[in-house]
Each structure stands twice: as C-alpha cells, then as structure tokens.
Write a structure and sequence with these properties.
The protein is an alpha+beta fold. It is built from 4 helices and 5 strands. The protein has a single domain, classed as Roll (Nuclear Transport Factor 2, Chain: A), CATH 3.10.450. 27% of the residues lie in helices and 42% in strands. It is globular. The protein starts with a helix and ends in a 7-residue tail after the last helix.
C-alpha cells in the first residue's frame, strides 16, 4: 500500500511539472532566476534547495541575455550541472541608488545537486541572481539598462 501511495505521489509531482532529475531541476531554477523570481522570497527555494537559508543576500545582480546548460557529471548520489551565462552587465546599489554597469562576459557556474529522500535538490545554487534584461526593465523601470 505504501509503495502504491508513493508511486501515486510521484506521478502527481511529475504531472504538475515539478523537476524529476538534476538537469530539469537546474533548468527550472535557471528559468525562475532569469524571470527575476528570486529577487524576493520564493517558496520554490524552500522545496528544491537543500538549505535555502544559507543563500547569501545579494549585493548585485548579473543582467543576462541568456544561459545554456553545458554538461552534467554524475558521481554517486550527486550531479554537477554546468551552466554557461551570457552576461550583459551588473546592476548594483550604492549610496546614490541602483545603477547598471555594462560588463559583457561569458561565465560558467557549476550547480551541485543531490539525490535526497525528497528527490533531487540543489546543494549550491551558484551565487547572486542572474536575471534577464526584460525582467529587470519591468521590475526597475527607472534604472536605464540597455
């Protein structure tokens, strides 16, 4: 009976579009980050990051025009997913307020995921937010980002 209930719950999670494996979990995270969903409290982090309270407060935002999952490497119950970001610049806050600094770059970050009794979860979600240009222009229209 417990086995049947567990299978039913897994089917409901997959049907609801929740991430099933490490790469789809990281893709889901990247999509939410790109849309600016992590610029404020977000319950998704509580469910899919092993210790969301250890994510540091951000003091800058990378403004990006895209990302791409490059590779993944499995080792026992962990998987490292490598992501390439295409950065336009950084948005920072100083004593005069928010400002955009153009700094085009391409960087790679490894997201470490772990298989837990709750499914795959992110151990290390990288660093500060990587948000798309359109999302930041909507959220902060007074800041000139181009």
């Amino acid at each position: 009976m417990k086995y049947l209930l567990a299978l039913l719950m897994l089917a409901m999670i997959i049907e609801a579009g929740e991430p099933a494996g490490p790469e789809s979990l990281v893709e889901n995270y990247l999509q939410k980050d790109y849309c600016g969903e992590f610029l404020q409290q977000n319950n998704w982090l509580r469910d899919y990051v092993i210790n969301p309270f250890m994510i540091p407060a951000w003091d800058k935002i990378s403004v990006i025009n895209g990302y791409k999952i490059q590779d993944n490497q499995f080792k026992e119950n962990k998987c490292s997913v490598t992501v390439e970001y295409h950065i336009i610049g950084q948005m920072i806050q100083d004593s005069t307020g928010l400002k955009f600094i153009s700094a085009p770059d391409t960087v790679t970050i490894d997201f470490v995921t772990k298989k837990t009794k709750f499914g795959w979860q992110i151990l290390h979600p990288g660093s500060y937010p990587h948000v798309g240009l359109e999302a930041l222009n909507k959220k902060y229209p007074a800041v000139k980002i181009q």
